[in-house]
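Let's practice the habit of predicting before peeking. Look at the sequence and jot down your guess about where helices and strands might fall. Then scroll down.
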Amino acid sequence: MPTYDALKTADADIYNALMGEMTRQTEGVELIASENYVSPAVLECMGSVFNNKYSEGYPGKRYYGGQEYTDIVEQLAIDRAKILFNAGHANVQPHAGAPANMGMYFALLEPGDTVMGMDLSHGGHLTHGHPVTYLTKIFKFVRYKMKDIETGEIDYDEMRKVALAEKPKIILAGFSAYPRELDYAKMKAIADEVGAYTVADMAHIAGLIAGKALRNPFDDGFDVITTTTHKTLRGPRGGMILTREEALGKKMDKMVFPGLQGGPIMQMVAAKAVAFGEALKPEFQVYARQIITNAKHLAQYFMDRNVKLVTNGTDNHLMLIDCVKSWNLPGGEVEKLFDRIGITLNKNMIANDARPPMDPSGVRLGTPAITTRGMKEAEMETLGGFMLSAIEKRSDDAAISALHEEVKTFCKKFPVPGIAK
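Done guessing? Here is the structure:
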């Protein structure tokens, strides 16, 4: 584990906050579905001297000199990403997932064009057309939803009907809180009928696709994939755009730089290259499958104890609990309760939620981070037991404190990569 001696001397306030965060991570359980732990090698890249280098442009076509090593790491990241996702082209420079989506939109659309994406309340993402985003001032967004919230089935018939009427230029597959797998072939068929591009925002499930535990949208003819590089992919925080064909990739490159961004964050590009290399190893496929196995096992544990899950289960890494139906509690209160015992998850809207977004009916939880720590099916039952005990004993401060100590003891058996030995 790094000592951080220079930081301790230079800025005690930041050093103390960093030490506190290390303790929080090692002594607590991370169940936020979009979070994970990176390897020590990825951490080393993020704090490396690549931070000192400005690298506007692309490998072999930079605006500054001294690029012999930045070109090496970016090209490695590109080549590895293309192999990992069977892509024709990869742009690894987007600073995050939202800028990757912005680059994709501006490369494919003109102002006023229409995009069809998943409704936020049914599991979609802000960048898929929520009215609070600036994107909705530039493009028109229409939405699709689940046909049956008990199974998670998307209403593909309604999707086709709306697509024929609205003629979207993009049909967007992707989500941030949807526990099932989408039917990419059906979406591609609808897109072909109306002449739309097909784009998959796989930010949440990129690692599951890379690990061959879920289907790759390119296998069903999708044109573009956007993604973050953290979450299930277990890399640094950043974004990426992949295209099936090289020609479309060149349009993405021009929009990312110079269209939207300046120089890439080269230490993060290096860290992406390392993470992609890790994901190409056979053991990553074992990891990806275990994420889903753990999620299914935890979901079944809850359902066997009368906990109401949205779509009654999961096919991926996450699940949504309807806290009002399960325990007559709002999601925000449940989030705070689990925080008190050292288990972190997030409040989340559920489909057709009667409660407001900042005080919704549900919570979202997922298994990528705990799987990275080596937890398997038996540990899912232990964690489920901790959470249900907290619900039962929520009015007893002494019992909640005792549960927190149990969680700390449990966590000592599962070190966090790059922090605990």
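How did you do? Residues 44-279 form a domain with the Aspartate Aminotransferase; domain 2 fold (CATH 3.40.640.10).
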